[in-house]
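Case study.
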Amino acid sequence: MARFGMVIDTKKCVGCMDCVVACKTENNVPEGLNRDWIVQDVKGTYPTLNMQIRTERCNHCDNPPCVYCCPCGASHIHELGGVVLVYHDKCSGCKACMAACPYDARFIHPDGYANKCTFCIHRVENGMDPACVSVCPTHCMYFGDLDDPNSELNKLLNSRKHRALITEAGTKPQIFYLD
Amino acid sequence: MNEITITRNNHLIDPTLSIWGWEISVYLFLGGLVAGMMILSGYFLYRERHKQFITSCTVVPLIGIVLLSVGMFALFLDLEHKLYTWRMYTTFQPTSPMSWGAWILLLVYPAMFAMLLIKVPGFIPKKFTLLFKWSEYINNNKRVLQSIGIANMVVGSGLGIYTGVLLSSYGARPLWNSSILGILFLVSGLSTASALVHMIAKDKEESRLLARADNLFILFELLILGLFIINLLSSTQAHINAVKIILTGPYAAGFWVFVVGLGLVVPLLIQSLAVSHRIKHTAVAPILVIVGGLLLRFVIVNAGLLSHWTKVIGLE
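After joint prediction, the assembly is written out as follows.
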């Protein structure tokens, strides 16, 4: 069984938003809404400053509260790679999943159902990387199988310092940021 | 200093979570109120006081059906994918409090309808003979009467507790992260229901008994509110920040003045004086209790949406 995840090298990310545009184009994300976004995190006081730029999206958690709270069974864990997805025709638009997500990664599509990053499962099933990963000009994003000890992801995670976001919420996020 | 710039500006998410408006607060309030009404009337029926406490056992179920329907309509208005509402009833998701709630709501109607049959409402035409036959059967069987009472207490408790568990199950919103919320909303429901029946009951003993009961419920609610605050204040920094939203932050005025002050303490004082025959019973105290119950839901829902693990806008 595969467990899909991402590793994002914050030392390489320049915040160019190519990933954001690629996602919107690939997935026809409606105007004004985003499945992925850029965060600039500045710490310190001038002149001793530290800035981290990172691209964020649904963390496809291993312990996904958005799936557990769904009253319709619309939010679910896909059999391939543990990706968290939504059946549009089962969703009642109750927004429970949006309340449950500590990353605020979901939104309501103009057609009424909950929507979010799918890890471009339609591309991954055909052996391609997600759109955001494939267009990144600095190659700061890595997509693959976290269960495979020889995957590029695990090599990076074993050799570099890294962290995941809001791990204190206990959802076991599957996107890791190299510091 | 930590300055975060984010390119996301999603509707209902940014700058602060605003997924649930007045609809959910109103629904949670009406759900709690109806739950309280079911428990009260169920108890009186179980104790076979229904012939004396006519308002509780015959009028209240009718009001309950109407109020719950209004609440469910508000809930429906909140749904974004309205044509797919029926999807909730094609599955049961044991990990989802909302799924439990959807099915509990289906049990509430038959329970209240059975209570209504104790005395078929006057506006029902006589040609519906089956209803009158059922009514006669129920009234002639003590066991059936008491079972209806128990069913109303059980389902009512489920409804009242679920409205709180619904919020407390969202780990991402620290303010709601306390299982005390289930009991808080149940007791608030009992208190607002007692206030309503106290206000409308024609029988003096029934009215006074419910005023005394309401005083107890208000005292208990104050205690639980205190425990809720202690619970969060003694937890992680995120929970402390969350409870500060209602203690000293943007919802402090709403919480202290309207929920605690005018919604609990003032009516408790007025009703204590009325119960000890120092002043007359008026509608002031019960109305304050009912409005306070509604505002409790508004404050908890809105402040909870503002609370977050890493950022709380408006707190500094």
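Observations recorded in class. Chain A has a mean pLDDT of 97. The domain at 4-178 of chain A is CATH 3.30.70.20 (Alpha-Beta Plaits). We will return to this complex in the next lecture.
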